[in-house]
């Protein structure tokens, strides 16, 4: 118990003193995850909205696949990205393996199905609500996508936050494609795993504390946005 208390006090010291190694890891984690979520949103939101309003042969099969991809095992994603970026892979010439870019790619693959599936659900609900009104105005199904995305922006913000929460907590995929290289590809989750195995509990606890704070902040933001959206609907 005394050892744990000592390690915890040391971890607080690392956080409050602004330890450069600690905060370099935190900033890299945030940069990788935020970039991955932005790219995933650019791909996933239009894809999800298009699936919500479009009617084509095989649409339901595509929806089933995207929903299934939400549960992709991270280590499998990491392996596939590794094989793609390795020297013998199709993108090996780019030399991206064991770089932050490789970790961004892996997280993007993991987060995109989540954002696409949740966007489809949101836009599908809005499409049912406004379908007749939009058709009466002569708006085509494809033309309705920007309008529906804008109208669902509050709910979609929670979708982005959910994607960020998934990305920032990722360890399996990023350790495979990033290699957990010190000062290069070492993120909060991979460092916690490494330092715990080494017995360096102070650094692991410091990063774990920051990760919990980030998770709580994301969840608080989701709750606040949901409550705000509910109030807007109540006054509409």
Search tags:
globular; 236 residues; mainly alpha
Structural write-up:
About 80% of the residues lie in helices and about 0% in strands. It contains ten helices and no strands. It is globular. The model has no long low-confidence stretch (mean pLDDT about 85).
Elements, N to C (H/E): HHHHHHHHHH
**Classification by helices and strands:** mainly alpha
Provide the helix percentage.
Answer: over 70%
Mean pLDDT: 87
Number of helices: 10
Radius of gyration: 21 Å
Distance between the termini: 55 Å
Q: Please summarize the sheet with the most strands.
A: none
Could you tell me the number of beta strands? Answer: 0
The low-pLDDT segments are none
Instruction: Label the overall shape.
Output: globular
- Beta-strand portion reads under 5%
């Amino acid at each position: 118990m005394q050892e744990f208390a000592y390690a915890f006090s040391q971890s607080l010291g690392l956080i409050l003193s602004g330890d450069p190694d600690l905060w370099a890891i935190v900033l890299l984690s945030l940069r990788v995850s935020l970039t991955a979520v932005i790219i995933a949103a650019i791909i996933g939101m239009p894809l999800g909205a298009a699936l919500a309003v479009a009617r084509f042969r095989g649409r339901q099969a595509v929806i089933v696949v995207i929903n299934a991809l939400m549960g992709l095992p991270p280590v499998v994603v990491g392996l596939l990205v590794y094989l793609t970026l390795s020297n013998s892979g199709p993108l090996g010439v780019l030399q991206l393996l064991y770089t932050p870019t490789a970790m961004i790619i892996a997280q993007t693959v993991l987060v995109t199905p989540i954002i696409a599936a949740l966007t489809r659900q949101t836009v599908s609900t809005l499409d049912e609500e406004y379908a007749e009104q939009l058709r009466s105005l002569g708006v085509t199904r494809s033309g309705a996508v920007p309008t529906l995305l804008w109208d669902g922006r509050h709910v979609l913000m929670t979708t982005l936050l959910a994607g960020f929460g998934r990305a920032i907590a990722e360890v399996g995929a990023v350790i495979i494609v990033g290699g957990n290289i010190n000062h290069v590809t070492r993120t909060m989750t991979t460092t916690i795993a490494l330092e715990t195995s080494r017995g360096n509990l102070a650094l692991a606890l410091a990063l774990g504390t920051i990760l919990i704070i980030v998770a709580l902040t994301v969840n608080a933001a989701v709750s606040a946005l949901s409550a705000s959206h509910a109030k807007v609907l109540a006054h509409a």
